[in-house]
Amino acid sequence: MNLYQQPEKHLVQFNAGKCIREGSKLKPDLRKGMIYMDQGDDQLMRFYWKERKSNSVPEDDLIIFPDEAELLPVPECTTGRVIVLKYKTSSQRLFYWMQKRDDDMDDSVIKRVNHLINDPSSALDDSQMDMDSSDHNIEMELMQRLMGSAGQGSLTEENLLELFQQADQMR
């Protein structure tokens, strides 16, 4: 990605791997993956899983209607953070495992996904949520502030110190 190319934005996006079923047990697919959701021109909510490597195409590409499914943590899993996309009208279950090292955003991610599933019209008003690129978002915001200050001819040592302090608070 070049410096001026904007990263792809989704309604929600977070790093997660797939789980593979072996009988009654689940084991992790070790590929680095991501789940994201978008809304098409038809206003239908789409749920995707794909590998994080460049130019990969989604392996899971699902249209989810309001109140048709929900994303839930799997408390029975004690060796990792497993989530399930559980359909309410069938026995279909898709299991994933959270790949972000800490669990500080797990509840927010699950809540956001379920909110988008149950109220797709809210996606028009809500801001986009990328749970794993907060560092990149902070950098972009700081760059925009820095460029704005420089463009106004008012970039001083004091402005820079203020930007660095704001960056520390955002992390």
TrEMBL record:
Localization: Cytoplasm; Nucleus
GO molecular function terms noted in the UniProt entry: endopeptidase activator activity; proteasome binding
Keywords of the record: Cytoplasm, Nucleus, Proteasome, Receptor
Limits of the Pru domain: 6-120
GO cellular component: cytoplasm; nucleus; proteasome regulatory particle, lid subcomplex
PANTHER family hit by this protein: ADHESION REGULATING MOLECULE 1 110 KDA CELL MEMBRANE GLYCOPROTEIN, PROTEASOMAL UBIQUITIN RECEPTOR ADRM1
Protein name: Proteasome complex subunit Rpn13 ubiquitin receptor-domain-containing protein
Primary location group: cytoplasm
InterPro entries per the UniProt record, alphabetical: Rpn13/ADRM1, Rpn13/ADRM1_Pru, Rpn13/ADRM1_Pru_sf
